[in-house]
Amino acid sequence: MAFHLQTTLKNDLIEGKKIYFASDVHLGAPTINNQRKHEKRFVSWLSSIQENASEIYLLGDIFDFWFEYKKAIPKGYSRFIGKLCELTDAGIPVHFFTGNHDIWVFDYLPSETGIEVYRKPLIKEWNQKRFFLAHGDGLTPYEKSYNRLKAVFTNKLAQKVFRIIHPDIGIWLANFWSRKSRENNNDRNNDIIQNEENEWLVLWAKDVLKNEHFDYFIFGHRHMAKIIQLSKKTKFIYLGDWITNFSYGEWDGSEFHLKFFKD
To answer: pLDDT digit string (tens) for 60-87?
Structure first.
């Protein structure tokens, strides 16, 4: 099965260190009651892993909405952005994948904080284990309507047109869209694990395995914290979210663990 990859890298985990994964924090989401508490919780987790982290992978939808206007960025997120700077200044690589909510990350965030931004899936190899990393949106042929919408969002002309809209209006529209999208997902139970015959990313991963081996598929997007054994040698991981699960992944060099953060 053909898919576009950002890059393929191979290296061993630093002894005594761990690699961490998180996704779907949705900072600024209009459905979250206490935005400051929400941001502080995620920053607290980043602080808690800082000493042991070799690398950190943020697999999409970290922001519920993000758009870099020429002279403005969305209000807020100062604690999170400051923590990103602290991590990269300390020499800890932070890898940021764009998701379907924060697809409009451009130059400001990486240049200001030192993170590396990925817009496509990434293959990594650590300690002879192969990892497929992605947010999870738009990969499969089961998402035709979404893929058409994503093509609009990634269109340069469409981005220029949106930039013309005053930020107060543009951000209001984005929050309105996000709220309606969450309501529709709740109505359709889209954040509930389906059986393997209906879970489209699982089906897609099984097709990939017919042509190429991976030890781990790691995705965000679905807001479910779950490990699925695809075969004797392959595990499929949904990282969950930071709205209800407060979950994250940890790779210690030999095993992948799905964990849950408590303040």
So the answer is: 999 998 888 777 788 889 999 999 999 9
Residue 60: name the closest of 114, 4, 112, 133 by CA. Answer: 133
Residue type, 225: A
The CA distance from 54 to 16, in Å, is 9
Name the CATH topology of 8-260.
Purple Acid Phosphatase; chain A, domain 2 (3.60.21)
Which amino acid is located at 60 in the chain? Answer: G
User: Which positions ≥6 away from 113 have C-beta within 8 Å?
Assistant: 81, 84, 85, 88, 94
- How many Å apart are CA 56 and CA 257, to the nearest integer? 14
Q: Specify the amino acid at residue 224.
A: M
Half-sphere exposure of 117 (CA within 13 A, CB side): 18
Helices 156-164, 144-153: crossing angle, 10 deg rounding:
60
CA angle in degrees (0–180, nearest 5) for 35-58-127: 150
